[in-house]
Design brief:
Blueprint lengths: L6 H33 L6 H10 L1 H22 L4 H17 L6 H19 L2 H5 L2
Amino acid sequence: MNVKSVQPVSDYFKAMQQFKDARATNGQSHLASIRNILMLGKKLRTDEMDYLQRYDPSLYDQAKSLSMEREAYEDALQHSRSKADANYYKTFKLMQIAGQLKQSGSEELLMRTNSIQEAHREFMRSSKYASLR
């Protein structure tokens, strides 16, 4: 056995640790990116939901809840008879969320509020909204 130096082995371990650290940092930045998408009220893609389910189950549950609430709101908007009805339902929904401020975390409520507002903005750009009186 011919061993010239221990240095290359330690360099290998340092490189592996740096790789693990970079990967962990990348995972944290990906979670932060997904959290920012939720904070903006945007919908998550399937791959982002899968990532959350794997790496942050509590945020996944929160995102799933947000998605279901948004879908219910969008369905209600589709059944609006007038623009005033759609605006009334938005106000009602936002007041309902504001009433829960003492019971729940403010980050979750901010996500819910932004999700409802984003869904309403999208509805206002639709042909369905344009056809309402």
